Amino acid sequence: MLMSPVEFFRQLPKKQCPECGQYIEEQAESYLTECERCLSKKVE
């Protein structure tokens, strides 16, 4: 039996920054893979 789409997305793990390990707060239409702190370090 197929899982409902809502249940599928509920079971996904939280997105985690690969640089520092901090969990990233998900936002609609966001494809970021690193947290704001690590991204700002790269810009400087």
UniProtKB/TrEMBL annotation:
It comes from the Bacteria. It holds the Pfam family YhfH. This is YhfH family protein.
